[in-house]
Amino acid sequence: MEDGNGYDSSMEMEGGNGYNGEPTESCLSGFVDNGSRDSLRYYLSRRTVLEMLKDRGYAVALSEINLSVQDFRAIYGQDPDVDRLRISISHQSDPSKRILVVFCGPGIVKVNVIRSIISQIVNRDTLTGLILILQNQITSQATKAVGLFQFKVEMFQITDLLVNITKHVLKPKHQVLTDQEKEKLLKKYSIEEKQLPRMLKKDAIAQYYGLERGQVVKVTYSGEITESHVTYRCVW
């Protein structure tokens, strides 16, 4: 029964029940996370990294991506050891390409931390890429040390990986073109790559796919797919 303010008193039932007579407690309990905040952060960021690597063509098992937070905590605990969270994986079409993902601790990343990470890498000569997940600042000296590595090093803040940006409902679909597809596109419109709209290397999508300068991305917007719903951007 509604009062003058539009409030329906029938919603308020004896025993704390709400809609359809369900106990309010049981409805809300599904949204309560009884685990630690750190374990949830590690779980979400690790899942996003696995999805990112799969989108880049690496051989990531779906069972790893679909791991529940409860199973994650059962394996790694409520206070995960960052060393156990490391991921070493090869590319699906080119097994010689191997990438390593390292989660850094909560402290400031200094040169000694970088040296320690490198000293622990097995088969360093076969590594083609390294991803560092940071939880704090990295010093200028440590950044310089990273720049001396023979393989590509990417750095992400853990807070940027709590959500996979490519899955947002408002984000258009991005597809990285192969070299052959890029040349076909340029030939079709009789243009040079510098005439394409630009995407900076620091753009979130460019970082997600690990794009390098000169690579082209096809961007498809929602709706009926016509040529007007598609654009191409070159990384600079």
Automatic annotation (TrEMBL):
Keyword Nucleus present in the record's keywords: the answer is yes
Q: Name one GO molecular function term.
A: DNA-directed RNA polymerase activity
Q: Which Pfam families match?
A: RNA_pol_Rpb5_C, RNA_pol_Rpb5_N
* Domain (RNA polymerase Rpb5 N-terminal) ranges: 37-120
Q: Where in the cell is it found?
A: Nucleus
A Gene Ontology BP annotation from the UniProt entry:
transcription elongation by RNA polymerase I
What are the annotated GO cellular component locations?
A: nuclear DNA-directed RNA polymerase complex
Q: Which UniProt keywords apply?
A: Nucleus
Q: Where is the signal peptide?
A: none
RNA polymerase subunit H/Rpb5 C-terminal domain span:
163-235
Family of the protein in this entry? Belongs to the archaeal Rpo5/eukaryotic RPB5 RNA polymerase subunit family.
Q: What is the name listed in the Swiss-Prot or TrEMBL entry for this protein?
A: RNA polymerase subunit H/Rpb5 C-terminal domain-containing protein
The scientific name of the source species is: Citrus unshiu (Satsuma mandarin)
